[in-house]
# Entry
Amino acid sequence: MPTVLVNGEEIEIGEDERLNGIQVAARAGEEVPHYCWHPGLTIVASCRMCLVETGRRDAESGEISMMPKLVPGCQTPATDGTVFVTNSEKVKDARAMVEEDLLIRHPIDCPICDKAGECSLQDYHFEHGREERRADLRPFTSRRRPLGDTVTLFVDRCVMCTRCVRFTREISGDAELMVVNRGAHEEIDVFPGFPLDNRMSGNVVDLCPVGALGDRDFLYKQRVWFIKSHENVCAGCSTGCSINVEENQDRVYRLKPRENPHVTGWWMCDEGRYGWKHVHDPGRNTQPKRRGDEGYENVEWSDLSQELDLKLRSSQRIAAVLSPHLTVEEAFMLATYVREIDPNAQFVLGHVPTQGEDESFSNGFTIRAEKCPNRRGVEEVIIGLTKELPTWDDFANQLGEESFDAVWITGGYKTNWNDETTADKFSGIPLLIVQDTFASPLWDRATFQLPSAAFPERDGSYVNHADRLQCFSWAIRPPAGVMTEGQLFWRLSQKSGLYKSRSILEDVTREIPYFAAAAGVDCGEHGIDLKVDKLAAV
# Structure
């Protein structure tokens, strides 16, 4: 097996692995600072921050011969016998020189910069910069201009790493960004008449190592050191991007992509990035209600679960509509609870929202037309329990031919998904339970109206279009008056203690063979491939 020497430590790499000096040093626990290099983009070796010493070790004699000059670690391949030195005085002096050169022209406006607290220039200066500044401080001018609807460029802060330019050319494919002028007058800009407006434009803000590119939606909203980050999964479409939900005091401020080589790499689309505003919409349903003689009246959750249970157990024929916005665990709990009451209960795949067609990019990233996170997971729960898969449209058309005593409809949709015509078909149901995020014609006909949780308030797992199960925990608490589906179904199932999604997932793996790969295994940060009978790359 090929062996690389990093600061005197031997590191083994795979025969087919193609690593550079930065990546192999990371395996040895050594961080090589860098600005321009990114694993998802081409290598330009322009920032020179990753300079290292390199050489080769003779396989027979063991003698090491070093190159006289420093080389960029990002551009130097790690092969059998390669030697890297990342912590010598020569390397440290080079890093300090690069930092000093960048700070000569960089405005010292950290107190007002949105990147403060997560800025590579700040971090590297304290770790690798000189102890004293030799250049005079210059007054700065905060030159800024919008690059598009989502991104603002702070010109003076740019370190010309060109990550954003390469992203628009290599990933999004629209190539709106370019470098104008020469030498010390270089700047990032858009082509005249072609603003940055592709469907992945927000990624350039994540890529920027300093505060040059600002997210106009997040700008000056929150300091990053107040923000708490939670690993989650985007609920915007069936791609299931791995994300971090960043919040403070139960209010979401932004979503950022989380690296997952099995799903989307390092990116997410703008639709998912900015598609969380409904979470804090003042029009959300936040109070459970029961229809009475004089209209709807509020109900306490402490009384509601018992009342629902009594009414459902007095029903003969029950149907449950399982929304593709439910987690695997929530869908399974509701289905097993209803089946325990009515062994012949009908389970229906809820409305699957679609918009346009799939849009794929050159690197394979795809924005799915299917605008829900867990259609595959809910499908397999229904098939695993009943061997059938009736759809929402099938069920709505079936109501004229078959009567039900009780129907439980779960939603969680962020837009209105049913109309008056469809809602009228449910008018004759004696017990109609509608659980949704926003009011709708169907909501207005319900016997019981139950508010639904939004995606960052849930706990459980989703299965994306490619059969990858990803687990996550809730990031924020729901609004006052809202009980999450998992908590309610846990209570109806008469389970003790607090809702534990992992214990339910273990029940799912025992009951439904499709989920067997997740049995007794931690999902990890990359999830589990359910198409095979073993854990795939946790």
